[in-house]
User: Fold this.
Amino acid sequence: MEAWQLFLNSLGPIALGALLGTIPLALASFALGLVIAIGIALMRISVNPVLSASARFYISVIRGTPLLVQLFVIFYGMPAVGITIDPWPSAIIALSLNVGGYGAEIVRASILSVPKGQWEAAYTVGMNRTRTLTRIILPQAARVSVPPLSNTFISLVKDTSLASTILVTELFRVTQQIAAASYQVMVVYLTAALVYWVICLVLSSGQGAIERRLDSRVAH
Assistant:
Protein backbone atom coordinates (compact mmCIF):
# COMPACT_ATOMS: atom_id res chain seq x y z
CA MET A 1 0.00 0.00 0.00
CA GLU A 2 1.31 3.43 -0.93
CA ALA A 3 2.22 5.77 1.90
CA TRP A 4 -0.38 8.40 0.94
CA GLN A 5 -3.17 5.82 0.73
CA LEU A 6 -2.13 4.34 4.07
CA PHE A 7 -2.18 7.81 5.61
CA LEU A 8 -5.72 8.44 4.36
CA ASN A 9 -6.91 5.00 5.44
CA SER A 10 -5.41 5.26 8.93
CA LEU A 11 -6.31 8.89 9.64
CA GLY A 12 -10.00 8.17 10.20
CA PRO A 13 -9.59 5.28 12.67
CA ILE A 14 -6.83 7.10 14.54
CA ALA A 15 -8.93 10.28 14.80
CA LEU A 16 -11.88 8.17 15.96
CA GLY A 17 -9.65 6.60 18.59
CA ALA A 18 -8.89 10.12 19.80
CA LEU A 19 -12.56 11.14 19.91
CA LEU A 20 -13.81 7.98 21.60
CA GLY A 21 -10.79 7.14 23.73
CA THR A 22 -8.11 9.76 24.25
CA ILE A 23 -10.27 12.85 24.76
CA PRO A 24 -12.90 11.26 27.07
CA LEU A 25 -10.12 9.62 29.07
CA ALA A 26 -8.26 12.91 29.42
CA LEU A 27 -11.40 14.88 30.35
CA ALA A 28 -12.54 12.39 32.99
CA SER A 29 -9.07 12.06 34.48
CA PHE A 30 -8.49 15.81 34.56
CA ALA A 31 -11.86 16.55 36.18
CA LEU A 32 -11.29 14.00 38.92
CA GLY A 33 -7.64 14.96 39.22
CA LEU A 34 -8.54 18.62 39.69
CA VAL A 35 -10.83 17.73 42.60
CA ILE A 36 -7.98 15.72 44.13
CA ALA A 37 -5.54 18.58 43.49
CA ILE A 38 -7.72 21.12 45.29
CA GLY A 39 -8.18 18.80 48.25
CA ILE A 40 -4.48 18.01 48.51
CA ALA A 41 -3.55 21.69 48.11
CA LEU A 42 -5.86 22.66 50.98
CA MET A 43 -4.35 19.89 53.10
CA ARG A 44 -0.89 21.14 52.14
CA ILE A 45 -1.57 24.66 53.46
CA SER A 46 -3.49 23.44 56.50
CA VAL A 47 -2.24 24.37 59.95
CA ASN A 48 -2.85 20.75 60.94
CA PRO A 49 0.59 19.08 60.77
CA VAL A 50 -0.87 15.62 60.04
CA LEU A 51 -2.86 16.85 57.06
CA SER A 52 0.05 18.90 55.77
CA ALA A 53 2.52 16.02 56.13
CA SER A 54 0.11 13.59 54.45
CA ALA A 55 -0.29 15.95 51.50
CA ARG A 56 3.48 16.38 51.17
CA PHE A 57 3.93 12.60 51.21
CA TYR A 58 1.28 12.09 48.51
CA ILE A 59 2.81 14.75 46.27
CA SER A 60 6.29 13.30 46.80
CA VAL A 61 5.17 9.79 45.81
CA ILE A 62 3.28 10.93 42.72
CA ARG A 63 6.01 13.25 41.48
CA GLY A 64 8.79 10.83 42.38
CA THR A 65 7.49 7.81 40.45
CA PRO A 66 6.84 7.40 36.70
CA LEU A 67 3.24 7.46 35.50
CA LEU A 68 3.79 4.14 33.74
CA VAL A 69 4.71 2.53 37.06
CA GLN A 70 1.61 4.01 38.66
CA LEU A 71 -0.54 2.53 35.88
CA PHE A 72 1.05 -0.88 36.30
CA VAL A 73 0.66 -0.85 40.08
CA ILE A 74 -3.07 -0.19 39.78
CA PHE A 75 -3.84 -2.51 36.86
CA TYR A 76 -1.35 -5.35 37.34
CA GLY A 77 -0.45 -4.95 41.01
CA MET A 78 -3.84 -4.55 42.70
CA PRO A 79 -5.02 -8.08 41.76
CA ALA A 80 -2.21 -9.37 44.00
CA VAL A 81 -4.16 -8.02 46.99
CA GLY A 82 -7.50 -9.23 45.69
CA ILE A 83 -8.61 -6.07 43.87
CA THR A 84 -9.14 -6.34 40.13
CA ILE A 85 -9.92 -3.18 38.19
CA ASP A 86 -10.83 -3.04 34.50
CA PRO A 87 -8.53 -1.19 32.07
CA TRP A 88 -10.57 2.01 31.69
CA PRO A 89 -11.16 2.61 35.43
CA SER A 90 -7.52 1.72 36.10
CA ALA A 91 -6.35 4.31 33.60
CA ILE A 92 -8.68 6.99 34.99
CA ILE A 93 -7.58 6.28 38.57
CA ALA A 94 -3.87 6.39 37.72
CA LEU A 95 -4.10 9.49 35.54
CA SER A 96 -6.32 11.28 38.06
CA LEU A 97 -3.96 10.56 40.94
CA ASN A 98 -1.06 11.78 38.80
CA VAL A 99 -2.86 15.01 37.88
CA GLY A 100 -3.78 15.45 41.53
CA GLY A 101 -0.15 15.29 42.60
CA TYR A 102 1.11 17.81 40.07
CA GLY A 103 -1.99 19.98 40.13
CA ALA A 104 -1.92 20.28 43.92
CA GLU A 105 1.31 22.27 43.81
CA ILE A 106 -0.15 24.53 41.11
CA VAL A 107 -3.28 25.17 43.16
CA ARG A 108 -1.25 25.71 46.34
CA ALA A 109 1.04 28.21 44.65
CA SER A 110 -1.98 30.02 43.18
CA ILE A 111 -3.62 30.29 46.60
CA LEU A 112 -0.42 31.58 48.18
CA SER A 113 -0.08 34.16 45.40
CA VAL A 114 -3.21 35.95 46.65
CA PRO A 115 -2.10 38.84 48.90
CA LYS A 116 -2.51 38.21 52.62
CA GLY A 117 -4.43 41.45 52.81
CA GLN A 118 -7.33 39.69 51.12
CA TRP A 119 -7.54 37.26 54.02
CA GLU A 120 -7.29 40.07 56.56
CA ALA A 121 -9.96 42.14 54.84
CA ALA A 122 -12.34 39.16 54.79
CA TYR A 123 -11.75 38.47 58.47
CA THR A 124 -12.41 42.13 59.23
CA VAL A 125 -15.95 41.91 57.79
CA GLY A 126 -16.68 38.76 59.79
CA MET A 127 -15.93 35.96 57.33
CA ASN A 128 -14.49 32.74 58.71
CA ARG A 129 -11.59 30.86 57.08
CA THR A 130 -13.77 28.53 55.01
CA ARG A 131 -15.97 31.28 53.62
CA THR A 132 -12.95 33.48 52.92
CA LEU A 133 -11.32 30.66 51.03
CA THR A 134 -14.36 29.82 48.91
CA ARG A 135 -15.67 33.33 48.30
CA ILE A 136 -12.51 35.43 48.10
CA ILE A 137 -9.31 33.43 47.73
CA LEU A 138 -10.14 30.54 45.39
CA PRO A 139 -11.78 32.73 42.70
CA GLN A 140 -8.64 34.87 42.54
CA ALA A 141 -6.38 31.82 42.64
CA ALA A 142 -8.35 30.26 39.77
CA ARG A 143 -7.26 32.98 37.36
CA VAL A 144 -3.62 32.51 38.29
CA SER A 145 -3.83 28.74 37.94
CA VAL A 146 -5.42 28.66 34.46
CA PRO A 147 -2.18 28.72 32.40
CA PRO A 148 -0.28 26.01 34.35
CA LEU A 149 -3.37 23.82 34.72
CA SER A 150 -4.05 24.16 31.00
CA ASN A 151 -0.51 22.99 30.31
CA THR A 152 -1.11 20.07 32.65
CA PHE A 153 -4.20 19.10 30.67
CA ILE A 154 -2.33 19.28 27.37
CA SER A 155 0.38 17.05 28.82
CA LEU A 156 -2.30 14.69 30.10
CA VAL A 157 -3.73 14.28 26.60
CA LYS A 158 -0.34 13.02 25.46
CA ASP A 159 0.16 10.91 28.58
CA THR A 160 -3.04 8.97 27.82
CA SER A 161 -0.94 7.09 25.25
CA LEU A 162 0.51 5.14 28.17
CA ALA A 163 -2.94 3.69 28.82
CA SER A 164 -2.40 1.52 25.74
CA THR A 165 0.00 -0.56 27.86
CA ILE A 166 -2.94 -1.72 30.00
CA LEU A 167 -5.15 -2.47 26.98
CA VAL A 168 -7.18 0.74 26.88
CA THR A 169 -8.34 1.40 23.32
CA GLU A 170 -7.41 5.00 22.59
CA LEU A 171 -5.52 6.87 19.90
CA PHE A 172 -2.14 5.22 20.41
CA ARG A 173 -3.46 1.67 20.77
CA VAL A 174 -5.43 2.07 17.53
CA THR A 175 -2.20 3.30 15.95
CA GLN A 176 -0.32 0.23 17.19
CA GLN A 177 -2.97 -2.08 15.76
CA ILE A 178 -2.86 -0.40 12.33
CA ALA A 179 0.95 -0.39 12.31
CA ALA A 180 1.06 -4.08 13.16
CA ALA A 181 -1.32 -4.92 10.30
CA SER A 182 0.30 -2.70 7.66
CA TYR A 183 4.00 -3.17 8.53
CA GLN A 184 4.53 0.51 7.59
CA VAL A 185 5.12 1.92 11.03
CA MET A 186 6.65 5.24 9.97
CA VAL A 187 3.57 6.48 8.10
CA VAL A 188 1.14 5.26 10.75
CA TYR A 189 3.02 6.73 13.70
CA LEU A 190 3.52 10.03 11.88
CA THR A 191 -0.24 10.11 11.32
CA ALA A 192 -0.76 9.60 15.04
CA ALA A 193 1.73 12.37 15.78
CA LEU A 194 -0.21 14.67 13.46
CA VAL A 195 -3.49 13.94 15.27
CA TYR A 196 -1.88 14.57 18.68
CA TRP A 197 -0.42 17.81 17.35
CA VAL A 198 -3.77 19.04 16.03
CA ILE A 199 -5.47 18.25 19.34
CA CYS A 200 -2.79 20.15 21.26
CA LEU A 201 -3.03 23.11 18.88
CA VAL A 202 -6.78 23.30 19.49
CA LEU A 203 -6.29 23.05 23.24
CA SER A 204 -3.57 25.73 23.17
CA SER A 205 -5.89 28.05 21.26
CA GLY A 206 -8.61 27.41 23.82
CA GLN A 207 -6.17 28.16 26.62
CA GLY A 208 -5.25 31.47 25.02
CA ALA A 209 -8.92 32.41 24.63
CA ILE A 210 -9.66 31.64 28.29
CA GLU A 211 -6.65 33.68 29.44
CA ARG A 212 -7.68 36.66 27.32
CA ARG A 213 -11.21 36.47 28.67
CA LEU A 214 -9.99 36.39 32.26
CA ASP A 215 -7.54 39.23 31.64
CA SER A 216 -10.30 41.38 30.12
CA ARG A 217 -12.48 40.85 33.17
CA VAL A 218 -9.65 41.88 35.46
CA ALA A 219 -8.99 44.96 33.31
CA HIS A 220 -12.60 46.04 33.69
Summary: The chain is about 85% helix and 0% strand. The helical segments are 3-44, 49-64, 67-77, 87-113, 116-124, 129-159, 171-182, 185-219. The first helix runs from residue 3 to 44. The mean pLDDT is 91.
